[in-house]
Amino acid sequence: MMRSAQIRFSDHSTLRIVQILGKLGNWRRVLQVIEWIQARERYKSHRIRHVYTAALDALGKARRPVEALNLFHRMLDQMASYPDMVAYHCIAVTLGQAGHIKELFDVIDIMRSPPKKKFKTEFLEKWDPRLEPDVIVYNSVLNACVRREKWEGAFWVLQQLGQQGQHPSSTTYGLVMEVMLACGKYNLVHDFFKKVQKSYIPNALIYKVLVNTLWKEGKTNEAIMAVEEMENRGIVGNAGLYYDLARCLCSAGRCHEALKQIDKMCKVANKPLVVTYTGLIQACLESCDIESGAYIFNHMKKFCSPNLVTCNIMLKGFLDNGMFEEAKHLFIMLLENSNSIKHEEDYKVKVIPDIYSFNTMLDACAIEKKWEDLEFVYEQMLRYGHHFNGKRHLRMILDARRAGKEELLEMTWKHLVETGRDPPPLIVTEMFCVRLEQGDCAAALSYLVNFAYVESQVFSRKSWSKVLVENAHRFEEHALDEVVREGNILLAGNENLAVRHLIESCKEFQRAKRSSTEVEVGRIFQTEAALV
């Protein structure tokens, strides 16, 4: 590509390509550029460390810690590419954000130690690449501790800073508080907050951690007072702070107060308003307050349209709290939205159900044994282009058939045939039973001839015997005799193990039935003789 564009092969052009690819998030292409550099013998780079560092930065922004660590180790092989402080920061931040604390400590040990590989340093006799971690590296360790919930790492960072004679910054204290919050050590969060107050003016991020801690402790009033104290100090809160306070209020059943925080959020927020409302609804549902969640859901419609995630959360919330009719009403509203969609732009304001919506309603209908509603939802699911899923839908379809709703089974069979998919063996067996119950023996056997697979245990003699015992009451008196007769005709033309196993099971079932009948008749005669 560079050759066709007549771009000169230079450090600057290669660096710019890596940077552009990094901004686009195309980390695979970044690695291809690095591999190309290493494979080109004619290409001699004089600033290879800068190219590698740009690649590390790109991999970090793309959240690719493993690939970044591999590249970092590759940089250690050459003196020209040996990591400097900028590269050190890149790999530390990447590993810290990913929670790779062990790998990050390995990197710290590597950078503190002399290179393992011996380089020719005749022109640079005093060259010493060893680097001690600075505040950025230590903060990265704290980030990893938050992800891994390792409170010991936070005290290690404070100890290291003390040995170097450095005083922790307010950002470092804030991260230490986050570690303690993640580990559930709320008393230590308050202790470190007091330390911050002695040396610094706490920023909004520190107050955010404090609010979350008070939320976890169930101290809603104290959380409100903390934010008021922050505002009285003239500190401008960020969107995350007000969002967490609003969710705290929702968890305490104070959704009207929570909605007042949205005005403050809108002044500093970048996230869409619908995301904020959805988070508040989720907080209400997590505290089993479905009424407040429904109130916020209806309130948000005055300012923004609920998206699919919001609707699915409310759908699940209604069902989890036994409000089937409310969930059904919401689901039907989603179905009706599709009637008003005429153009692609309409999808931005109108929400239609996805497969999660359908599965949620199907599960609820099956649990409540609302077979009419189950049939309606299932039919709509297929109409919307979603497919039958054996793991999710097979059991409820068979349960519905046992409850007398054979339409679902017929609908599923038609769908599978039209889409060219192999029907599950249990569906084949059930269709055989349905057709035999209807008195159509030829049609029943045709399912086995065309769709039964011998390797399935469903068509073994043992399985057929179980099917006949469980469904004998559905068949006419001579139905199984007809199955044997028609089955033998089919086997004369073509061997089919599934049909053969069925015939053998039918004969065995009939013999057992006649034996039990003879025993029953003999018992009756004996009883009558005794009475005479």
Structure overview:
This protein is mostly helical. It has 27 helices and no strands. The longest helix has 35 residues, at 497-531. The model is unreliable at 528-532 (pLDDT under 50).
- Which structural class matches the secondary elements? mainly alpha
- If you average the pLDDT, what whole number results? 87
Shape: extended
**Spatial extent as radius of gyration:** 35 Å
Could you list the spans in which at least 5 consecutive residues all have pLDDT below 50? 528-532
Using brief descriptors, characterize the structure shown:
532 residues; mainly alpha; 27 helices; 70% helix; disordered C terminus
SSE arrangement:
Elements lengths: L10 H14 L2 H13 L8 H14 L3 H11 L9 H14 L2 H12 L22 H14 L2 H13 L6 H13 L3 H14 L4 H13 L3 H13 L6 H13 L3 H14 L4 H14 L3 H11 L7 H13 L3 H14 L17 H14 L2 H13 L6 H13 L3 H13 L6 H13 L3 H11 L9 H11 L7 H15 L3 H35 L1
